[in-house]
Amino acid sequence: MTTGHAYGVFSTPADPRKRVGVSAGENIIDLASAVRNLAPELTPHVAGPSLDALLAAGPQAWAEVYATVTSWLTSSRDRIEPYLVPSASLHLPFSVADYVDFYASEQHATNLGRMFRPGQDPLTPNWKHLPIGYHGRAGTVIASGTGVVRPSGQRRSPSGEITFGPSQRLDIEAELGFVVGMPSALGQPVGLEEFEQHVFGVCLVNDWSARDIQAWEYVPLGPFLGKSFATSISPWVVPLAALSAARVSPPPRTEPLLPYLDDEKTAPWGLDVRFEVRLNGHVVSRPPFASMYWTGAQMLAHLTANGASLRTGDLYASGTVSGEGADQRGSLIELSWGGQEPLSLPDGSTRTFLSDGDEVVISATAPAPDGTLLTLGEVRGHILPASP
To answer: N or C: where does the chain have the smaller number of CB atoms within 10 Å of the terminal CB?
Structure first.
């Protein structure tokens, strides 16, 4: 397995400055220092305490930095030895501008539809015609490893009583996030073929969800406080170039698509990314991203179809990744079937939703260009008690 080529931000006890790094096996390349001495022309792209400058530099700069680092990793490892950092603290890799969450898994949407609308078509009439999504809260996107305080809000009990208090149905959502580099002008939609010109790479996302709060508040305007309290992202951003071997065709489309979403004649942007979800150290699910109905390119095209502009640092996520198998569901509401089928863990405990102290780790791999496996890292979070 290879770490491939992913970018992040790190610091060390000896040098607490945040700076740009590249994953290199068990080590990190201090990219800012390496570039300053080995490829000074690239210095402006990796200077500063975040990936913001690199994201804003655009596709040509992305390719130049990627090619340079790839050459170091494959044929000039001796040159980067002085810049290897064995251990470090990892940080939020970029400044999040806007955040959008989609609902792109047919299996996930079908499962929830069967739970909430029994006896009816599990998919809403619009689901196969457009990627459904909502705007989230960029200010609560947090770095992997940050504790998540159990949110409080209004809930409605089965008897109809309205109460306020800590969520009793706190959940996870295993997702893939897409990180926007190049902005777009207000009023100018971004077409399917422009995906690689705007999206720098991907990261892992856990979009924590308070299902009881969400269930009471979401009609008629959709998710609000049940989703906005925290969204965790992985510290590593994997550039699209590293995912060339992971590209696959999306599932067959069963409804004709309008031209701006029709990708039948474009290069495929399905991704063979394989997730693993661990709860308190135990594997509870292995969701496959390859089965996602809507691709990252289609999500971006729809996000901007009305002329909404993009900003450097925009993050949009896929929504829960779930497969057809019971062991491929990317949320606890599915794994426990709405709380009706408690999940048994190897330590003898059971879960329907998250308890205080629980830790969730979501990791993922994908085929790498050299024939090995590329790891996308992990996004980790643990549940803290509700604020008094």
So the answer is: C
